[in-house]
Automatic annotation (TrEMBL):
Organism: Ectocarpus siliculosus
UniProt keyword list: Membrane, Transmembrane, Transmembrane helix
GO CC annotation, single: membrane
Biased composition regions of type Pro residues, renumbered to the chain: 13-23
Taxonomic lineage of the native organism: Eukaryota, Sar, Stramenopiles, Ochrophyta, PX clade
Name of the protein in question: Uncharacterized protein
Length: 221
């Protein structure tokens, strides 16, 4: 049996190439292919339906407890007598109830301040620790209504932790809106000052101002 010569082996036709595969649809912005979005399941739909209801229950419970805390503090102040420590604790309790009430009502006057200085109220752990601390203050007042308020506050702390831990996006969105409202109000109230600052910057940095103007013009050409 003779072996084929190198020339014949070279001239032998090569196997046909595999058929080209159809390119997959590019993703948004030329990225990786996007998979079709799956339809929401029944559990997800049920979860979305329960979120607003749970949030409303939580806010109503917090506002109701604010009223109970304020009443507890006032009654303690009225009957404190020479109990200076009890009167001081009652003042703290009244202040904390006002903070919680303003936080839940989201009044425009105080919403910005609370969002900037009491950010721990927007997350599950911070809110729970705050409510437990207020409940401990209630137990320190040594009265029947204070014990009831403290017990309710402890239960409410667990409920707040559950709602915020399970649905954290709602509180994050709320904090973002409160902080954005502060920025909008500042810009609205300081339009003249901002315009003057822009003029001064352009006057002190003519090269940067010229480059910025050219870049802005090129985007609209």
């Amino acid at each position: 049996m003779t072996t084929p010569s190198p020339t014949l082996r070279f001239l032998r036709p090569s196997p046909p190439p595999p058929p080209p595969q159809a390119p997959s649809a590019p993703g948004i912005g030329g990225g990786l292919p996007q998979q079709a979005a799956a339809a929401p399941t029944a559990a997800e739909l049920e979860r979305q339906a329960k979120v607003p209801q749970l949030m409303i229950y939580m806010r109503v419970a917090n506002i109701a407890l604010c009223g109970i805390l304020a009443a507890t503090a006032v009654l303690k102040l009225i009957g404190a007598g020479v109990d200076v420590a009890g009167a001081v604790l009652a003042c703290y309790l009244c202040a904390f109830s006002c903070i919680l009430c303003c936080f839940e009502t989201h009044l425009k006057v105080v919403a910005k301040t609370i969002a900037a200085n009491f950010g721990f109220l927007y997350n599950a752990k911070g809110r729970a620790v705050f409510l437990i601390f207020v409940g401990v203050l209630c137990f320190s007042l040594n009265s029947d209504i204070a014990f009831v308020a403290g017990a309710l506050m402890m239960v409410n702390a667990v409920f707040n932790f559950y709602v915020i831990f399970k649905y954290p996006e709602f509180e994050r969105d709320l904090q973002r809106k409160d902080l954005e409202s502060e920025g909008r109000d500042y810009l609205r109230a300081n339009r003249g000052a901002l315009a003057q600052a822009g003029v001064e910057f352009a006057r002190n940095n003519p090269d940067l101002a010229r480059k910025g103007a050219q870049a802005a013009a090129s985007t609209y050409v």
